[in-house]
Every structure is written in C-alpha cells, then in structure tokens.
Task: structure prediction
Amino acid sequence: MKMFEEVMDWPGFVHNGTGLDYWEWKYRRRSCPGFASCAAWSNGHPVSHASWINSQMLVNGRELLAGQISDLYTHPNFRGHGLADRVLGCLNKHSLANDVEMMFAFPSSIGYEIMRKRGYFEIGSQFVQYQLITNPSKFFAQTKLGMLKRMAYEAMLAVRSPSLRGTVEEVDSFPEDVGEMTRAFEARFDLVARHSTEYLNWRYADPAGGMFRILITRQEARTTGFAVLRPYSMDDAHYMDIVDMMFDLNDPMVAQELIAAAISAAQDECADGIQTWLPGGHILAPILGRTGFLIRAPLTGERQLRMLYQTAEGEDELQKTLDRPDLKIHIMLGDTDWV
Result:
C-alpha cells in the first residue's frame, strides 16, 4: 500500500478513512473472502505489485469462483524489466492452487498490453459510455455555436424527460429481498457478477469502500430495482456516474424511473453531466437513449473500459462460452476496480 500512496493518489477516489482502511475493506472484509497478493521487491521495498480477489460470477447460469485482478502497478523507476509479467505469473500459480476457474481484469492501457502477452483474451462485447449533460448552459458555452446547440439539446431533453411515479427512495443499505430481484435479473445474462444482498451492502454501503448513493424502487413492499450513483469532481467539473443498476425486467418502467431519479440526483448535486458504461447491445441502452443519453466517444489517450479474462487449464467449455461473439453481458463500473 505504501508504494501506491508514494507515487499516485491511490485508490484514486473519495472514501472514508485512511488508505489502510480501504485496503482492509477491499481485501479482508469482502463478502466473498479470499485474495492473493504478489510483489517484487528491491532493497526491502515493494516495486511491483498485483493481486486477485475472489469474486462470484455467473456464466450461463452456473456460479463459479473467479479472481478479479486488481492493483497491478510497477513503480516508474523499475518499469521495463518484466516485473509486472512476473507478479502476474505468481498470481496465476496462486489461482490454480485455490481452484479459481477464471481470472479477469479491467486494466489500464499498459496493463492491457502486458496481460494480452500473457495469454489473456478480451471479451468480445465492446463497452460504450453514455452521457447526459445536466448543465447545458455551462457545457455549450465552451463550444462553437454553443447557444444553438444548447437550445436544441434542451428541447430534446424536454421531450424525453421521464416522469417519476414516486416509488424511488434513497437508502443507506440494501433491503434483504433485493437478492430475489437480482437473481431474476442475472438469469437473463450469459456473464454477470453475482449481486447478493451481502455483496451489495459490502460493495456500496460501507463508506470505507467509496462514497455512493443508493436508490431503490419498491412496489407493494417488494424491491423491484436499484441504482447506485457516485458523485465526483474532476478538473473543476462535477459529474455523477451510474455505477450499478438492476431491475425487474418484467416492468421496464422501473428502469426509466430509476434513471429519472438519477438525473434528478445529479441536478441536486449541481453535476455538469451524468454518465455510465454498458456492454454493447445491453437492454438498458435504448432506455438511456429515450431518456436523452448520448454515446460519448473517448478522447485520445483516455482510458477505455475493456474486460480481459483467462480460464483455468481444462475449462474448455467455459472458454468456448466466453469466446462467443453473441455473449449477453451485464458488467458496469461497480463491477470493476475503477470505483
């Protein structure tokens, strides 16, 4: 942990407590216990590091033990010597010894190249970033023909703005019955992280892991959906991410209502925009489009969300499934180590 804090703003987002509190939350208080860390050392100090943490994934409805690679980093003074490759090799040995069926990661551009050379595959579905501008006056003031564009955008939002039915509430933790809804939602996908009630409360309701806002919808005392929001600031601008979302697929109005509540929350936070990442072809994409979200093309040099994976030796059927170009995936920012 000291190596990260010395050379970068680790973990890179706001959370309660110290870096050690975050480390304890992430590695020792997980809802799915188990992790391994490997490091390369020089003169008694760690100079390269990688870890994996146990994760429950569902592939074709089968629950399996997966390892999410995280905190892959080499000190700038020691790069170019193959240290990252060696710590990844160390992790691979640990994963085999612990019966991990697949390893996966959402790496940086440098990490992507290193992991691809180690035989990791990229999930075929391309991730897409969606954005809705919640402060058009400020955004379009910085662009050519900004006034005309702002007027057109505001007119479009007026037509597309969803209405609230009054079933959304903000809570500090997830209700016990949310696990029933998430089970039904997950069953519609070929690849998805298991979202048990215990996992959701560990991931989003503990401030040591980050500062999130939790929205839920209820109908007749039954939880029908949730959305998790993350407000943050960067370069004097304020944003809101929708980092996770699941809902009753038999009632698409639930999704629209959660999105409407998220937009309202972003406006209350004076956010300039609200955004989210989704795999291509996701069922939420048309709902976002009808609400006014637009696809945002990444800027040159900007980090892109990509998922790499590697199956354990002998997992031929699992490999065939993950290789499918038509794989239906539900992965959002909250499933990554970006937030």
In short: The longest helix spans residues 252-268. The CA atoms of residues 27 and 137 lie 43 Å apart.
